[in-house]
Amino acid sequence: MRSLDGLFPADAFPNLLVGLGSVDDAAVYRLNDEQALVQTTDFFTPIVDTPYEYGAIAAANAMSDVYAMGGEVLFALNIAAFPPDLPAELLGEILRGGAETVRSVGAAIAGGHTIQDKEPKYGLAVTGMVHPDHILTKGGARPGDQLVLTKPLGTGTITTAIKRV
After folding, report:
1. Can you tell me the distance from the alpha carbon of 65 to that of 36, in angstroms, rounded to the nearest whole number?
2. Residue range 59-67: mean pLDDT, rounded
3. Which end of the chain is more exposed for a tag (fewer CB within 10 A), N or C?
4. Looking at the domain assignment, is residue 55 inside a domain?
């Protein structure tokens, strides 16, 4: 975001290897010569009708930011907004879908935060680890590199358009 230029000068934080100055979905902070933390936050409104599947998709989406940067997921925190007039069982299924997806990669849900809102929202704050010399960034792509697509291009645009109909 251009409006944030200059607010967080990169040279003031030399261990912040990936931050606001890049177009990546996660930040990377060097702990030492062999380890760097990868941190991301991602959440969205429901894109499917099944609460469990919604939670699973949201969790996989949030963790994918860490994997895309070459990292491994360590743990995650739930982020949820839920209308008070909907049954709590629905929220339980959303959280179960997210927790089982996180657990399937050997990571843990370590807590989180839930608020009341008019529209459901769910996602994760995910913490991972990567070697500082093996960080993958969007800005690091070069002609001839292989591109791996995990879903068809335009999926996000289509699901957003369907929700507005």
Report:
1. 15
2. 96
3. C
4. yes
